[in-house]
Amino acid sequence: AVLLLAGAVLRGLAICAIRPGIWFSDSNGYVRGAATGELNPVRVDGYAWFVTPFWLAESATALIVVQHLIGLAIVVGLYALLVRRGVRPWLATLAVAPAALDSYLVVLEHAVMAETVYHAAIVAALALLLWNDRPGVAAALAAGLLLGDAAIARSVGLPLTVVVLAYLLARRIGWRPLAAFAGG
Description:
The chain is mainly alpha-helical. It has helices at 2-17, 25-36, 46-56, 60-84, 89-101, 103-109, 115-130, 137-153, 157-171, 175-183.
């Protein structure tokens, strides 16, 4: 709880210091995609779809706040997974401290960029697959959908799907969860 609070304070300071957020040249394409709905011929548009409700609400600040909340949710998710898999709580806290306090991650969350959504999709997918010794059909399907989401947020997510599929094949999780993952 103390670590999560420290992470929240750090993100609150970032919100107060740089309003509404950090803008990069790539941000223009994402916002243009959100505003027009047109597909970008150069990059994938999953993040533009994420930005669309904030564009319609005319609130870049809300987008940044939500991205910071997603960053904190990643911390909670990683901690919960580690404790679930038998890591002692104090060690799990140490393990997730970089995700809570790393200034680089806070900067990424503070930018109008796809990284936070991409990271969250990957962490959620892997957590679903690792939560139990053998993922069930529903977990495998959700993980496949989340990795698909990661791939449309950042094209570098597509090879990760192949790596995870190879991992699932090596683990011999069964044909139903494997088919569900591939279907997702």
